[in-house]
Amino acid sequence: MAQSMTPMEDAMRAKITETLKPTTLEIHNDSHKHAHHSAMRGVTSKETHFRLVITSEAFKGKMQPARHRMVYSLMKDEMAQEGGIHALQLKTRTPEEEERLLQKEAA
After folding, report:
1. pLDDT tens, position by position, 82-100
2. Secondary structure class of 30 (helix, strand, coil)
3. Residue 73's CATH number
4. Is the N or C terminus of the chain more exposed, i.e. has fewer CB atoms within 10 Å?
């Protein structure tokens, strides 16, 4: 079996899907935009900076900081490992919030 070219993204997708059961999950790898930063000097990983859009019922009744803590908790191993996730940009919504956003964009 061939080794994945995106093991970090694969791990994120699996954990988020299993735990949060999202109706929307977008994972954008923005690592190439940050490769020149001094903090990335010597890092060979191509999966260090991600932008996520997650819509899930699991976020219902929670403020943004609590939602973000849920995601950070899921990614703690990936963030702790050498060459792992250095930065996560998160947009977290409930299905109702996403529906309102889509209606607003359509108007």
Report:
1. 878 888 999 999 999 999 9
2. coil
3. 3.30.300.90
4. N
